[in-house]
Amino acid sequence: MNSEFEQATGGDRHRLFVYNFGFLTQRRERRILSLAGYDIRVGLPGADDLVGIWGDSPTAHRGKAIAARRGAPLLRVEDSFLRSLHPGRAGEPPIGLNLDRAGVHFDATIPSDLEGLLTTHPLDDTALLNRARDAIARMRALHLSKYCAVDPSLVPPDPGYVLVVDQTRDDASVRASGGNDALFREMLVFAQEEHPGARVIIKTHPETTAGYRGGYYSEADENHRVSLLDQPISPWSLLEGAVGVYTLSSQLGFEAILAGHKPRIFGTPFYAGWGLTLDENPVPRRERKLTRAQLFAAAMILYPIWYDPCRDRLCDLECALDMMEAQARAWRQDHHGWIASGMRLWKRPAIRRAFGSHGKVSFAETRPQGDTRPRMIWASKAGTDTDATLVEDGFLRSRGLGAELVPPLSLVTDNSGIYYDPKRPSDLEEMIARRENLSDGERRRAERLVARLISDGVTKYNLAGDRPDLPAGHRILVPGQVEDDASILQGTELVRTNLDLLQAARAARPDAVLIYKPHPDVEAGLRAGKLDATGLADLVAEQSDPATLLAQVDELWTMTSLMGFEALLRSVKVTTLGAPFYAGWGLTEDLGPVPARRGARPDLMGLVHAVLIDYPRYRDPVTGLPCPVEVAVDRLASGDIPHPGLANRLLSKLQGVFATYAPYWR
Fold first, then answer.
1. Which ranges of the chain have pLDDT less than 70?
2. Range of the structural domain that residue 498 is part of
3. Which of 11, 78, 351, 465 is deepest in the core (most CB within 10 A)?
4. Among the residues of 121-267, which ranges form H helices?
5. Is residue 196 part of a domain?
């Protein structure tokens, strides 16, 4: 465990008596509390027990009264500041909790544990503050907020406006700050008077937009200068164009600080009073001056308890960000639904599972009239169709072959092209170019991922295989490919067959030891491309484990095989004769033509981040949740993955027979 949640649990277990039915019915919250060391009970507490209450909810008075009578301390439970896609009233559980034994973070009448951290913790550890800075930058870049169901593609108003933040009527944080209609009216007047002539944008709370609770502003407050905004525009986009931010106690004020603002605060939220806000109602005991990184470190790293729902364990903030990034990406791409084309029948259940959690996926070869949903198409079936998002298997795919109809753990979506077709730009190319410079946090994540892939021997298909004894000498691995695969047809011009590839390698390295590795689809009899390598290869490594081969060779020669990328991860020199996605960036020796547009020079970790973190979408086969790459690697390494049934295996064999004899049937 990391220190921030080791400190929270203390290694001990405590009985936690509760008098709010939600503690008993909300499974995620119960699990987080259990992992944090609290056993939920009903009844009367003893002297060594605690009483749990939810913030300052309408039922909190019950727990307070019993705690006072029994002399038991309180544990106040609240949602963390990075919560979920949607508000809790939508039924979605949180990714973390704030557990406070002193007070509650939004009520300044009693100091909370968070205020104690902000007041007394040194907050001077370089590693801690670097983590904070990296996390702030990451939340901004990924548009992550307390509620992450925002659409970064929505365009905010033209810059130069004043942002006034509405809140839900009679919310506990509003009551704790003395909020009422008059104070919200005053805040709106201040915004207009202090910025004469500027437009005023009132941001409606997501719960108000969804109809759960009303706010303090309405259409009656709109005029030629003032307008309401209830679209799911990213808070970070809104903050970027604002010239001033006004709030009572909203978390958007905290995010405004992180975005570089000094917001005017009319209440007493946890982030007020540390020299980062303009406070109408200062809290006298808050005299310390903090930096943004220090405020964030306390509120987002040291204070909360974060939860990993895929691996069912407590985690650090970075892991929680990984989880929310995956979930937010799925919502943002899928909430309008999809029309899916070019999908074989056996792929459709996997497509529905991967893309159908937030909107309906319908299968149709053409767009139905009047249907405005976005359209996706399997990349190899797209032809000249450019009116669709292209879909393909990801690079960490499964334990088993796609040709055996094993469903994928990862899929890629591309709105520009597709990664294996160098004739046109792809989203992956843009992502690789953007990763020419990595933050420290991004680099550490990529390095950890590579180390894990190598230590666990994880590759695309993760097939069990032999570890052959290789002849001594300068060893070159030559991976065979499926010769009618789209990556060959689109990605190479000069060399298009396994025979030509072997001959080119032998001609260039006459004294080397050539190891030919047939493609597993071909070995399984499922695709065309069988080759008699006698006389060209020194060894044919049939039914062998790619990871063990890569650990024993000095070079790899390939047309476009993904094994070239996997070789780069293992510091093996790679020569390409085609133009795979990893060629042309200065990391390979390229004998075939590669696009001139690949002019960026990322290092290996930049390439890894783009290819394995940014580009694919992963789905956890155990929980069914969108997940980060690290969870997919866990599942691939452990084999904790459902396998296809007998029907799929028989269908794959028929597919192989058809591929073998198709020339005779044409």
1. 1-11, 402-403, 528, 643-666
2. 431-646
3. 78
4. 126-142, 172-176, 181-194, 206-209, 235-241, 251-258
5. no
